[in-house]
Amino acid sequence: MSRVGKKLINLPDKVKVQLSGQSLQVRGDKGVLDVAIDPAVKLNITTSSIEVIPLDLDRKSRSLWGMTRALINNAVEGIANGYSRKLEIEGVGYKSSVQGKNLVLSLGYSHDVVYPIPDDATIQCTKPTEIIISGISKQRVGRIASEIRAFRPPEPYKGKGVRYAGEYIFRKEGKKK
């Protein structure tokens, strides 16, 4: 039995859901998200909560039970509150700035890295060494953060590069004479 799948998803007052076929549409003040529902599970929707129920107790239904509940909960949470991810830049001369619809990163390469800001997310640079990515889709915010981090991942000797806020970088000892 799935511990995650058994939990009810509480719906805030400002979030509305609508099931049409195998697609659940979550609508609120921040926008609209669609969640695909597999035919192996069924939804029981009330005015204040959603319950995910497996049709069978076979391996496929049980594995999709918890995952479907988590995807729906992430959509409801994103529409209600939104998600954000913070990145830190460390290194001499490394900095970032938002110029129009582009994020410009100076990461020690011969040219600046220009990353176009997607329409479904917002990117802010509160400091030259801090980037905040926010949006309603948890998956999309994480994907954008990983793409920006991939331009210069943190290296283990000096710790230079782009890292997630609070990420621990295992440091190596350099060469000895």
Question: Brief overview, please?
Answer:
The protein has 177 residues and is α+β, with helices and mostly antiparallel strands. The protein contains three helices and 13 strands; from the N terminus they run αββββββαββββββαβ.
Give a written overview of the molecule:
The structure is a single chain. It contains three helices and 13 strands. The protein has two domains: 78 residues, Outer Surface Protein A, domain 3 (Alpha-Beta Complex); 82 residues, Alpha-Beta Complex (Outer Surface Protein A, domain 3), CATH 3.90.930.12. The protein is of the alpha+beta class and 177 residues long. The strands form four sheets. It has a four-stranded antiparallel β-sheet with strand order 11-12-7-13. The chain has a three-stranded antiparallel β-sheet with strand order 1-6-5. The model has no long low-confidence stretch (mean pLDDT 91). Strand 2 and strand 3 form a beta hairpin.
Helix content: 10-25%
CATH class of the largest domain, please?
Answer: Alpha Beta
Count of alpha/pi helices:
3
Outline type: elongated
From the alpha carbons, calculate the radius of gyration and give it in angstroms. 21 Å
**Element string (H = helix, E = strand):** HEEEEEEHEEEEEEHE
The portion of residues forming beta strands comes to 35-45%
* Count of all domains: 2
Number of strands: 13
Global mean pLDDT: 91
Note poorly predicted spans. none
Measure the end-to-end span.
Answer: 58 Å
